[in-house]
């Protein structure tokens, strides 16, 4: 059955029902139109529009009237945000429980491809899937080579400034896993043969990297042309969230299974084309949004009109009505959106000035969403003097670029111990802290005993506990280490770390890898080196945000400023945001000055070369609910008459200017 046969037409009464059920505010016409639509549609929703909540409301209405027990709604995205929102908002309702079970399906695009396409194809070839995991797959590939083969290939790749870990299976013919890809080495060379051997062996053993799942998905669709039709029959309605972030390999599979123009399936794509900040290797076959099927939601609950007006010129895909800020100003609300001007050769005072502005204008209550300083560039690579400030490190030398990754791993075990202790102090349970320490222990074992064949799969705490329960003395020692690190009144000292904790951790690592009595590799000792706890007092959403939190103190009051890349903050809400000048070919904010000034030339469709910069600025500017600031070099504002003219234009556009050079 098609969607129109499975669900009766959605009425205003259905919309009113879901508004009451979810406790939503009164919805405007574009939002109601989305909820009532029964057609294939592309929804372009601005930042802070309540997009995920609307998606859940739409699903609740559909599930309420769903007639089939065998056909369902398929909800796909890049994260599990939709499932988490359903559990949060509808978990205790009948309709919420209905959405979370068969016949409906909610998962990531990778998860869907793995379950319905990749796994069946592997089974048809007699291959048992072991893992779709980059780390485990790299280990499996390493095990397939002798030491001389591995180190020879590694050295050859590094000589060409390449990385073995960047290699991917490109063909479902595992005897020719590269599929003819040019990797810089001829097929007759030992390096090429070693690469093919490692990729082929791991694939045949059932190990694949995260993005290789799409190669396998296409293999099934090529082998069994009827699979796409069967999946469309199973899922006559598919909703794809965060569509602007969909990469070509993901989109190609989705397009083959759920064509946007198939009359028997309803494809609902939701996203924001102005937040497409993750680079694509190629354009999508079916670009988002389709102008003929587009619905705009241009109003944001996150911020007021002052920030909306500043951010609107940076919408690379023009918003018909312009960006609208719905957050009502709170009296007295004179929070200034400020450009902080600093000397070209010294950016180190910027964070303190931002901290002063936050303390002056934002109450403790309004700062709960967090105070952030973000940049377009956060890695300090190949720095040249004329690029200053190039990256976040130039504003605070202690900033570490590696910690903004979602896969953040502490640089040393001691750093992980300090972060885990903060988790244990701030969270209602110690589960996150224990999991982090188990991750560090597993990492220590791999570094200390690199030739071990023991593999720890799944969540590290569960794997460590399962392994050590067969060794009661080691398990007791593990629990004692947890107590010494997490559950004592004072911080771990250097003396305790070196003399008591580190020796126990090495013995535990040996027990995990059945390597008792074996020599310990020097990398293991380096990983156990002592370092003091970071000075920051707040724990954010990851261990990385703890390490990268700058503390500004002004007498008895203070504020934690969390530093990160713009990319890592996409989708999040801040109380206040400072966008820092960085260098990408040219200075990022300086390049965008015409849009900041509101020049008429900037209102024209910009060149494609400006697209990514504009979108990054748009994402950064639409994070804060209360205050937006920029850090700009003195020379970017100019001097003399032209400088005065530019400052006047910026003030007319809604900016206050704080000059640190006078």
From TrEMBL:
A molecular function GO annotation: ATP binding
The protein's name in its UniProt record: DNA 3'-5' helicase II
Residues of the UvrD-like helicase ATP-binding domain: 24-310
Entry keyword set: ATP-binding, Helicase, Hydrolase, Nucleotide-binding
InterPro entries: DNA_helicase_UvrD/REP (IPR000212), P-loop_NTPase (IPR027417), UvrD-like_ATP-bd (IPR014016)
BP-aspect Gene Ontology terms: recombinational repair
Gene3D superfamilies named among the record's database cross-references: P-loop containing nucleotide triphosphate hydrolases
Entry binding sites for ATP: 45-52
The keyword Nucleotide-binding is annotated on this UniProt entry: yes
Pfam families in UniProt: UvrD-helicase
PANTHER family in the record: ATP-DEPENDENT DNA HELICASE SRS2, UVRD / RECB / PCRA DNA HELICASE FAMILY MEMBER
Top-level taxon of the source organism: Bacteria
């Amino acid at each position: 059955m098609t969607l129109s046969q499975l669900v009766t037409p959605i009425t205003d009464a259905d919309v009113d029902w879901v508004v009451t059920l979810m406790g939503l505010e009164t919805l405007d016409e574009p939002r109601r139109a989305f909820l009532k639509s029964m057609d294939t549609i592309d929804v372009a929703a601005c930042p802070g529009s309540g997009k995920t909540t609307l998606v859940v409301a739409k699903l609740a209405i559909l599930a309420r009237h769903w007639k089939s027990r065998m056909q369902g709604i398929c909800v796909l995205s890049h994260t599990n945000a939709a499932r988490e929102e359903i559990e949060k908002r509808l978990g205790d309702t009948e309709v919420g429980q209905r959405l979370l079970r068969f016949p409906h399906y909610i998962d990531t695009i990778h998860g869907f491809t793995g379950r319905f396409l990749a796994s069946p194809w592997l089974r048809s070839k007699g291959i048992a899937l072991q893992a779709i995991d980059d780390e485990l797959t790299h280990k499996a590939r390493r095990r397939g080579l002798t030491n001389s083969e591995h180190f020879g290939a590694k050295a050859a790749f590094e000589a060409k400034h390449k990385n073995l870990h960047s290699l991917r299976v490109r063909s479902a013919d595992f005897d020719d896993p590269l599929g003819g890809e040019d990797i810089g080495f001829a097929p007759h060379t030992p390096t090429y043969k070693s690469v093919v051997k490692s990729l082929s062996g791991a694939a045949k053993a059932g190990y694949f990297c995260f993005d290789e799942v799409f190669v396998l998905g296409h293999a099934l669709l090529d082998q069994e042309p009827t699979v796409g039709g069967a999946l469309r029959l199973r899922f006559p309605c598919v909703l794809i969230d965060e569509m602007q972030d969909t990469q070509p390999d993901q989109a190609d599979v989705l397009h083959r299974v759920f064509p946007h123009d198939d009359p028997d399936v309803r494809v609902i794509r939701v996203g924001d084309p102005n937040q497409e900040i993750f680079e694509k290797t190629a354009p999508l076959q079916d670009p988002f949004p389709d102008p003929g099927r587009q619905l705009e939601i241009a109003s944001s609950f996150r911020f007021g009109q002052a920030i909306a007006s500043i951010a609107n010129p940076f919408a690379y895909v023009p918003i018909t009505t312009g960006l609208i800020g719905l957050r009502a100003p709170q009296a007295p609300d004179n929070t200034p959106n400020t450009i902080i001007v600093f000397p070209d050769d010294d950016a180190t005072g910027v964070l303190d000035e931002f901290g002063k502005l936050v303390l002056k204008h934002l109450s403790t209550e309004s700062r709960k969403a967090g105070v952030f300083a973000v940049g377009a560039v956060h890695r300090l690579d190949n720095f040249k003097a004329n690029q200053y400030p190039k990256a976040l490190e130039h504003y605070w030398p202690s900033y570490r670029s590696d910690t903004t990754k979602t896969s953040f791993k502490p640089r040393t075990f001691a750093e992980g111990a300090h972060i885990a202790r903060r988790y244990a102090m701030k969270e209602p349970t110690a589960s996150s802290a224990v999991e982090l320490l188990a991750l560090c222990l597993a990492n220590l074992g791999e570094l200390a005993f690199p030739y071990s064949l023991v593999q720890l799969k799944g969540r590290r705490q569960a794997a460590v506990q399962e392994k050590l329960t067969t060794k009661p003395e080691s398990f007791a020692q593990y629990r004692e280490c947890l107590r010494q690190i997490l559950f004592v009144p004072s911080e771990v000292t250097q003396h305790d770390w070196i003399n008591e904790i580190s020796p126990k951790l090495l013995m535990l690592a040996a027990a995990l890898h059945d390597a008792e009595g074996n020599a310990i590799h020097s990398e293991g000792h380096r990983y156990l080196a002592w370092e003091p706890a970071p000075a920051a007092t707040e724990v954010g959403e990851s261990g990385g945000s703890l390490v990268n939190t700058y503390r500004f103190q002004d007498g008895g009051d203070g504020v934690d400023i969390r530093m990160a890349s713009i990319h890592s903050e996409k989708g999040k809400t801040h109380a206040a945001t400072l966008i820092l000048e960085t260098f990408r070919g040219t200075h990022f904010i300086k390049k965008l000055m015409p849009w900041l000034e509101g020049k008429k030339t900037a209102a024209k469709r910009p060149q494609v070369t400006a697209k990514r910069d504009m979108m990054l600025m748009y994402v950064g500017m639409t994070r804060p609910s209360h205050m937006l600031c920029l850090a700009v070099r003195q020379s970017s504002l100019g001097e003399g008459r032209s400088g005065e003219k530019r400052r006047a234009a910026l003030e007319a556009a809604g900016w206050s200017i704080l000059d640190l050079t006078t």
